[in-house]
């Protein structure tokens, strides 16, 4: 299938003149990110946008949504008054399929269990002209790469790993559902002009090293927040040597360093992938404007002049990395892994090895992993760990089955799971004898926070390339180094695994019987979208109340969070995914994973009305019933991880008024603003220590709320003393209007006459 060719040709027809206008404005050579950003400004730029400071209105080419986030996004869009989406948009059913037994049975169970939600998504997609990818079609990011991503384009998606499409030269940014509503409604989409981090890749990889190791190395260099507010642009001959899907792996996992997105320049590898996936016309059109789909030559020659930060990596010297546990930026080269296992006391036995996911499920990944698996049989080795394989799409699954790779995995005991997110997002019914026992799993996924994969705090999850994970499945030991260590086979012989070998693209081409796509009706007139008032899965939305026009006084503390607080801590996935379309039900998971500073426990906070400790959501519901507003206090990089806007909507729904933290992750801060919340940061981070459990809080300065103007928080302590502390914010004039209106969506409703 070839989608949106007219749109893509229009982008390319306009690109040369738009880049020229931007270059004349900047009066200097341009990076690739700058070319795409300026070419997609909602109105032609009349001044230079300052990186990291200026908010800019953009006009993305398309929107992509996965089923868990699409529910809330489309429930919001349904209220805004549009008859059709203004830009091409798609929904992908990949998050609600639980991995339990195997692909066929798990998919059948998911379709039955989630029928109400799938029917809702299919019907509302039909009504508003949205393409619908059925359960089993594949993971959103792999399907987008195969069908929609194109060099020089701009896309937003309601998933934090949307930047996967940067592997095809596209600026693709993860957002919350309210941002998607803006774009689908034809309105400008706002983003602070990103800073630019350049990563110069020289040399060429070989042997056991893969594209995954590049991003694992980068994560170790930049940490989980080092890319916040920045686009990471990879360049150099080393970048051009990587396969298109390898580039996508790197861009996908850029979310783990907080990057706005990551990007590679158009090259022959991308052109080959476009042709292999039935888009030769797109490759031809892109080649005609190739110079505008790459950084200018001067940027290559002197990158420090054009990027805010530059890293350099010689791929010939890179070795495989293993990152974790509990955070994706703890990077250990495999040559040091045995030493690290011993030093940290990590469980050495690898109990489960899992390959696939949106990050690493390409044909290249699977074929290289299969070459390792084939050696196990040929060399009389058996797998020592449970071993699962998650294809990224039905196109990949069908092709690797046709080419014999699924049979290879099956011969060594591998279990093929559905073309879905599965264990990567906690949709995994893991079998373990004692859930409190410390244990190790290794995956080729992207994220490895505590409880992320199986809901168990005791699980030590490590991230590596698919070929390294496959080697771990055979060896069964985290301390194993396939580059130098030997294994004893069934005959008692010592053998070594050979280097992986594979194919960037299938030699006999991609094949598929049913890719799983359902086109929308030509007209949505007459299409009914019904939500039962008694449904436990779906709930129509009511507008959030507008700001009352005064300072906020006598707020109570809901929780002072200690340490890392990701969106998984704020709004867990796993079994809670079934409530993603029901705001009140899913609000029962609000902040249940966050650690309370005052008692070191999760889901246990002091209720100031009763003096007793209890669950966070239940305590907050009591405050809401009494009309009492509350404050949540957090640490650094609050809200890192997923794009899920439920982490912002749940506190808004339950009556939390203010989130005050040391620093925010980008997407979560934006989501809070969109929902009419106050997201503020300590001007002096040490003031975090002044927050006491029984404090009352006043937020003053709101009647003069203005960009760049600090607010004040008065802490009224139980002993009668008080502190005044200054709070910073990043709200611009438009975002302040969102706050005053009660949400950005309230303004959209008003604009379209629905409020």
Automatic annotation (TrEMBL):
EC class (word): lyase
UniProt catalytic activity: citrate = D-threo-isocitrate
Any one GO molecular-function label of the UniProt entry: aconitate hydratase activity
Keywords: Iron, Iron-sulfur, Lyase, Metal-binding, Transit peptide, Tricarboxylic acid cycle
Every Aconitase A/isopropylmalate dehydratase small subunit swivel domain range: 557-684
Gene Ontology CC: cytosol
Pathway info: Carbohydrate metabolism; tricarboxylic acid cycle; isocitrate from oxaloacetate: step 2/2
Keyword Acetylation applies: no
GO biological process: tricarboxylic acid cycle
Domain Aconitase/3-isopropylmalate dehydratase large subunit alpha/beta/alpha: 34-476
Gene3D superfamilies for this protein: Aconitase, Domain 2, Aconitase, domain 3, Aconitase, domain 4
InterPro entries (alphabetical): Acnase/IPM_dHydase_lsu_aba_1/3, Acoase/IPM_deHydtase_lsu_aba, Aconitase/3IPM_dehydase_swvl, Aconitase/IPM_isomerase, Aconitase_4Fe-4S_BS, Aconitase_4Fe-4S_dom, Aconitase_dom2, Aconitase_mito-like
Entry's family note: Belongs to the aconitase/IPM isomerase family.
Record-given protein name: Aconitate hydratase A
Source species: Flavisolibacter ginsenosidimutans
Species lineage: Bacteria, Pseudomonadati, Bacteroidota, Chitinophagia, Chitinophagales
């Amino acid at each position: 299938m070839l989608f949106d060719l007219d749109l893509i040709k229009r982008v390319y027809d306009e690109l040369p003149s738009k880049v020229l206008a931007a270059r004349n404005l900047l009066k200097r050579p341009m990076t690739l990110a700058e070319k795409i950003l300026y070419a997609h400004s909602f109105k032609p730029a009349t001044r230079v946008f300052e990186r990291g400071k200026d908010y800019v209105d953009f006009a993305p080419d398309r929107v992509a949504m996965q089923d868990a986030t699409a529910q809330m996004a489309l429930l919001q869009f349904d209220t805004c008054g549009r008859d059709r989406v203004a830009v091409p948009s798609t929904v992908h059913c990949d998050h609600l399929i639980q991995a339990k037994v195997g692909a066929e049975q798990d998919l059948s169970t998911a379709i039955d269990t989630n029928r109400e939600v799938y029917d809702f998504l299919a019907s509302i997609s039909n009504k508003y002209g949205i393409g619908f990818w059925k359960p089993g079609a594949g993971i959103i990011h792999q399907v987008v790469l195969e069908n929609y991503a194109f060099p020089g384009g701009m896309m937003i998606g309601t998933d934090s790993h949307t930047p996967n499409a940067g592997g095809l030269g596209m600026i693709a940014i993860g957002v919350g559902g309210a941002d998607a509503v803006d774009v689908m409604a034809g309105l400008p989409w706002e983003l602070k002009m990103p800073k630019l981090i350049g990563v110069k890749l020289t040399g060429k990889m070989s042997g056991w090293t893969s594209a995954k190791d590049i991003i694992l190395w980068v994560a170790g260099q930049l940490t989980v927040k080092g890319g916040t507010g920045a686009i990471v642009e990879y360049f150099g001959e080393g970048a051009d040597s990587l396969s298109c899907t390898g580039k996508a792996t790197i861009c996908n996992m850029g979310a783990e360093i907080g990057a706005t997105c990551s990007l590679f320049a158009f090259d022959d590898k991308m052109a080959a992938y476009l042709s292999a996936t039935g888009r030769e016309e797109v490759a031809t059109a892109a080649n005609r404007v190739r110079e505008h789909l790459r950084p200018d030559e001067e940027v290559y020659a002197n990158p420090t002049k054009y990027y805010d930060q530059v890293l350099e990596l010689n791929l010939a010297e890179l070795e495989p990395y293993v990152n974790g546990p509990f955070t994706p930026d703890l990077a250990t080269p495999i040559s040091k892994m045995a030493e690290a296992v011993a030093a940290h006391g990590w469980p050495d036995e690898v109990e489960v090895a899992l390959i696939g996911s949106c990050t690493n499920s390409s044909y290249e990944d699977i074929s290289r992993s299969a070459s390792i698996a084939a050696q196990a049989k040929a060399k009389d080795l058996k797998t020592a760990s449970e071993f699962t394989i998650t294809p990224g799409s039905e196109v990949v699954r069908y092709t690797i089955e046709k080419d014999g790779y699924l049979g290879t995995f099956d011969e060594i005991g591998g279990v093929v799971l559905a073309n879905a997110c599965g264990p990567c997002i906690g949709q995994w019914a893991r079998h373990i004898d004692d859930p409190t026992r410390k244990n190790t799993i290794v995956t080729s996924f992207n994220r490895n926070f505590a409880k992320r994969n199986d809901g168990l705090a005791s699980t030590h999850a490590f991230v590596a390339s698919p070929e390294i994970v496959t080697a771990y499945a055979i060896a069964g030991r985290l301390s194993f180094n396939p580059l130098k260590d030997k294994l004893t086979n069934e005959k008692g012989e010592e053998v070594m695994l050979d280097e992986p070998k594979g194919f960037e693209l299938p030699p006999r081409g991609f094949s598929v019987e049913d890719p799983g796509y359902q086109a929308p009706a030509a007209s949505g007139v007459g299409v009914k979208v019904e939500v039962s008032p008694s449904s436990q899965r779906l709930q129509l939305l009511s507008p959030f109340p507008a700001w009352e026009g005064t300072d906020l006084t006598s707020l109570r503390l809901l929780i002072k969070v200690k340490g890392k607080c990701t969106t998984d801590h704020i709004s867990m996935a796993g079994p809670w995914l079934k409530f993603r379309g029901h705001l009140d039900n899913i609000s029962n998971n609000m902040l249940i994973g966050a650690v309370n500073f005052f008692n070191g426990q999760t889901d246990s906070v002091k209720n100031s009305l009763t003096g007793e400790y209890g669950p966070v959501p239940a305590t907050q519901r009591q405050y809401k019933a009494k009309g009492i507003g509350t404050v949540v206090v957090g640490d650094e990089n609050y809200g890192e991880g997923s794009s899920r806007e439920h982490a912002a909507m749940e506190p808004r729904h339950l009556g939390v008024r203010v989130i005050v933290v040391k620093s925010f992750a980008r997407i979560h801060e934006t989501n809070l603003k969109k929902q009419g919340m106050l997201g503020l940061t300590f001007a002096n981070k040490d003031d975090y220590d002044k927050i006491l459990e029984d404090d009352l809080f006043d937020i003053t300065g709101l009647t003069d709320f203005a960009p760049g103007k600090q607010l004040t928080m008065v802490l009224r302590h139980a002993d009668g003393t008080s502190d005044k502390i200054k709070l910073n914010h990043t709200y611009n004039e438009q975002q302040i209007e969102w706050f005053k209106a009660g949400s950005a969506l309230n303004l959209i409703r008003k604009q379209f006459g629905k409020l």
